[in-house]
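Tokens for chain A. Residues wanted.
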């Protein structure tokens, strides 16, 4: 279902989705606040979802057991940092009055069309059927688009427009291979399975290669007659392949050979052990595009911008953190996290209550003492008699 592709793409772009995660054997926790970012909060459920996405990604890479745990624990401290940074970028986007609703709607329309649905209402129904909240999807998309817009406006655009012509030309000269169109070979192949008698197979392959090289037989006809793979029925035609995509063995065997070149038998292990003979049907040499090409200039600028932008982005995020109020629950403040919580002294409610009672008692005592002092006779007074002793 293509709907799931959307959720996966959202995750890969730095926003997290999916069900709340609890370790096997653990009771499911009630949602709680793990961090405060200015006036916004990050919930435990979002933090757990992010952990699950990381774990799934590492498993997809083939990591298991001790190596999986090691990698997970190394990256884990970055999870909350990334959630906090994402929130800071969204808040900055709101300050800049960045509107991404057109992009959000366009993305939803694309998903709708990819799933052959007639309206956004149909898309919402379809999402609901698979347990997806379209409101949450919209929120995730807004986060992604706002973050990208802030990065572009505040960091990357400023770098791009400050690049000099010399800087761009120097970069192009140092990285010409990046801006070249790779060479391409159109190939045909005859393949023989090694079988039990590999020596006999090799001898047969050499004989076929010799026939092809001397021109005594057409390569396509030889492929249809001898090749032991499905391609043989079509004359062994593989088609066009970029030279960098060829295996080292094949690329080495062909070398600089032009059209019509036939190789000696090459031992291959896939699709099954055997020997292959290749023929070059067409050859297209690599082409380096000139710097004057407008597309090349644009690509040079973008590559140079993003290389420099990595450092500048770190500085920008650091500034956003420094200007913000960030408080992290001590239980989730990991040692290797870059973001440190604001130090706030919190007094438990019972202590506050006791302190208030003591303060009230002290004020009451001071008031009573003051009242007693006000009612005492002034110095030299006779307690209601006049100075002469008469009442």
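Reply:
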């Amino acid at each position: 279902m293509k709907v799931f592709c959307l959720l996966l793409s959202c995750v890969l772009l730095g926003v997290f989705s999916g069900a709340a995660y609890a370790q096997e054997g653990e009771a499911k926790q009630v949602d709680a606040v793990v961090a405060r970012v200015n006036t916004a909060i990050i919930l435990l459920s979002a933090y757990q979802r992010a952990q699950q996405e990381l774990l799934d990604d590492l498993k997809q890479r083939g990591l298991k057991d001790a190596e999986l745990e090691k990698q997970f624990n190394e990256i884990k401290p970055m999870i909350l940092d990334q959630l906090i940074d994402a929130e800071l970028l969204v808040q900055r986007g709101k300050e800049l009055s960045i509107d991404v609703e057109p992009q959000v709607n366009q993305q939803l329309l694309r998903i709708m069309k990819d799933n052959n649905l007639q309206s956004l209402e149909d898309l919402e129904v379809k999402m609901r059927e698979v347990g997806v909240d379209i409101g949450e999807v919209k929120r995730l998309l807004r986060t992604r688009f706002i973050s990208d817009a802030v990065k572009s406006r505040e960091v990357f655009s400023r770098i791009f427009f400050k690049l000099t012509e010399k800087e761009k030309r120097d970069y192009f000269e140092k990285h010409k291979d990046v801006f070249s169109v790779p060479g391409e070979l159109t190939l045909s192949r005859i393949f023989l399975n090694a079988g039990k008698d590999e020596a006999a197979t090799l001898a047969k392959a050499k004989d076929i290669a010799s026939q092809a090289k001397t021109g005594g037989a057409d390569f396509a006809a030889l492929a249809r007659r001898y090749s032991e793979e499905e391609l043989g029925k079509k004359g062994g035609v593989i088609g066009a392949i970029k030279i960098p995509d060829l295996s080292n063995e094949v690329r080495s065997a062909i070398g600089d050979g032009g059209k019509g070149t036939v190789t000696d038998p090459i031992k291959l292990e896939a699709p099954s052990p055997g020997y292959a003979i290749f023929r070059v049907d067409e050859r297209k040499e690599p082409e380096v595009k000139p710097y004057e090409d407008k597309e090349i200039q644009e690509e040079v600028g973008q590559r140079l911008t993003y290389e420099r932008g990595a450092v500048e982005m770190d500085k920008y995020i650091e500034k956003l953190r420094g200007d913000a109020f960030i408080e992290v629950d001590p239980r989730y403040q990991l040692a290797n996290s870059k973001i440190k919580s604001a130090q706030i002294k919190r007094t438990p409610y019972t202590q506050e209550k006791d302190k208030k009672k003591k303060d009230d008692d002290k004020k009451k005592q001071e008031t009573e003492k003051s009242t007693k002092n006000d009612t005492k006779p002034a110095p030299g007074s006779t307690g209601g008699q006049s100075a002469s002793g008469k009442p």
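The longest strand covers residues 274-284. Residues 1-28, 381-391 have pLDDT under 50 and may be disordered.
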